[in-house]
Amino acid sequence: MNAVTPSGFRDVLSEEARVREAITRAVADLFASRGYVPIETPTLEVMDVLRAGGRVPATPFKFFDSRGDLLAMRPDVTLQIARMCATRLAGVPGPLRFRYTQRVFREAETENQVQARELTQCGVECIGEVGPAADAEIVALFAEALRLAGATQFVLAMATVGVLRALLERSGAAEPWKAAVLDAYHGSDFVALDRLCDAAMGRAVEEEAVDAGAAAPAYTEAIRQLARIRGAQDAIDAVRALVTPLGCVADLDDFQATYDLLGEAGLADSVLVDFSVASSFNYYTGLVFEACSPYLGSPLGSGGRYDRMIGSFGADRPAAGFAFSLEQAMAAASAEADATAASGRPLRIAVPKGSLNTEAIACLEEAGLDVTGLANPGRALVISNPGVDYIIVRPSDAPVFVALGAADCGICGKDSLLEVGAAVEELVDLRFGGCRFVVAESAGTSAAIEERYRKLGSIRIATKYPSITRAHFARTGTQVEIVYLHGNIELAPITGMAERIVDITATGTTLRENNLEIVEEVLASTARFFANGCALRTDERIVALARVLAENAPKHAYAPIAGASNPAQPTLS
Ligand SMILES: Nc1ncnc2c1ncn2[C@@H]1O[C@H](COP(=O)(O)OP(=O)(O)OP(=O)(O)O)[C@@H](O)[C@H]1O
Ligand SMILES: O=P(O)(O)OC[C@H]1O[C@H](OP(=O)(O)OP(=O)(O)O)[C@H](O)[C@@H]1O
């Protein structure tokens, strides 16, 4: 027997347990001193109840009990407290202030889940209070609790979702376009956001775009700009200047008042107004915030106002709260203790080797970075120049390095970002490395493949990109079995191992020389500059680099091969 703990779960030995106990006690005392009373929620929740609250946070562990109910281990406490307020505490006059320290459980979402699957969340929920004073109370308490837990150098990135919602509502845009904009915000894909806005304004875009309907250009432009506004008071002023002429001030006055109160509480230096933060949430109704440490690749915690969540379980009740991970706060504290000062730390950029390498280096050089030694690194994997460390990676590994905080930012193809599915902020389309993903088959085999699909109900697809392939055929409604290969994918139909392939084509030479024909388009890809969300919010060099790269990007060619048919419908039925 292998007597180990399950992956993502661990023992806590006494030395650490003592520290955890001291911190949780101190934090609980702080919350109690502000009138928050303890509350406990069950470890298991009925899955439908979690779903009813809107977005289910993370991926919960799920199982059926002996009665056939689908249960989930709590991935979060907020939804449970919302349920409790709407049911057990319905009619109890507010305001109610609850505090908790509870374990939450999250199933691994990707292969690269090195994060713990059991976390200790410390948090509060304040139910029945509204307005800037209530919002500021929550944010200030969050900051105080993090400090007590030993994390002192965090940035509190905050925004309000009301402005984006108002812009979307008044834009006159078609619903699918609005949904796509929200998706782009939620997925931190600001390249997709640009593209949606460009298409809505009638500018040429390389890919087929979601129809924006009668979207008014001024609103579309504001929606695009909003995501990139960050700073201090100047950022709020910029948002106001942007949205006032459009009648979309929404809850910006309250946001300003909250910001002012936080300034009075001595938090001005910790607060970053950042409207891209709205990307992380979809159940918040007003203020949203997250705390990022310059030393960690994922946030310490987050929170916001969710005035409609309780209403999804019963009567509406305004509410706001936050939670942070005890483990993350302790990790930030220990990183702070042995840091050789993050501010002096070189910017860590993941640079792809292979076919994107030369142009990636050219872009970085053009942006004013010292790329000495990067083109010919020999066997060196890290090239250190003044102020910058280049981490040389396989392109498909670049998103992993950045998402896990081993690099601050990086470059790779859009295809790698899609395939890995890592949570990164996609900032700039660098416009080189153009290629298309296509479904292809051996010439003259299409009738036989259709007959096979009719008889067997599925076809075999060979690819190096299983996620992209799965998503594509799910969209087209075609049943496929995926044969995962590492290279020379074209061999699969030639040898009869699979009927079709999903692969990259650039010049079209490989397809031609192997007598393969394109059946349909999957997607077009170019190189992207992207960043870790915490690094982006704590290191201004990334914003500056993104700006210069975006200015220079139009100089680079977008050059996928032309001429393939692009059937919108699945070819098999
Ligand atoms: N003709 C092409 N063939 C392959 N990739 C291309 C081509 N044109 C552009 N690209 C882009 O270059 C990226 C890197 O390709 P490259 O061949 O260097 O790496 P790879 O060996 O496929 O990647 P990895 O080693 O990470 O699996 C692709 O992900 C794609 O975005
Ligand atoms: O249209 P083309 O210009 O001919 O380019 C397409 C080829 O390039 C890529 O292969 P790569 O060289 O990366 O090798 P791989 O097959 O090992 O992935 C891709 O997989 C195609 O085979």
TrEMBL record:
Pathway: Amino-acid biosynthesis; L-histidine biosynthesis; L-histidine from 5-phospho-alpha-D-ribose 1-diphosphate: step 1/9
CDD domains per record: HisRS-like_core, PBP2_HisGs
SUPFAM superfamilies: Class II aaRS and biotin synthetases, Periplasmic binding protein-like II
GO molecular function, one term: ATP binding
Key words, A-Z: Amino-acid biosynthesis, ATP-binding, Cytoplasm, Glycosyltransferase, Histidine biosynthesis, Nucleotide-binding, Transferase
Keyword Ion transport: no
Enzyme class: transferase
Subcellular localization, as worded in the UniProt entry: Cytoplasm
Catalytic activity of the protein: 1-(5-phospho-beta-D-ribosyl)-ATP + diphosphate = 5-phospho-alpha-D-ribose 1-diphosphate + ATP
Entry's Gene Ontology BP terms: histidyl-tRNA aminoacylation; L-histidine biosynthetic process
KW Cytoplasm (keyword) present: yes
Entry GO terms, CC: cytoplasm
EC number: 2.4.2.17
Record family assignment: Belongs to the ATP phosphoribosyltransferase family. Short subfamily. Belongs to the class-II aminoacyl-tRNA synthetase family. HisZ subfamily.
Record comment regarding domains: Lacks the C-terminal regulatory region which is replaced by HisZ.
PANTHER family per UniProt: HISTIDINE--TRNA LIGASE, MITOCHONDRIAL-RELATED (PTHR43707:SF1), HISTIDYL-TRNA SYNTHETASE (PTHR43707)
Subunit details: Heteromultimer composed of HisG and HisZ subunits.
Function: Required for the first step of histidine biosynthesis. May allow the feedback regulation of ATP phosphoribosyltransferase activity by histidine.
Name the record gives this protein: Multifunctional fusion protein
Organism: Adlercreutzia equolifaciens subsp. celatus DSM 18785
Lineage per the UniProt record: Bacteria, Bacillati, Actinomycetota, Coriobacteriia, Eggerthellales
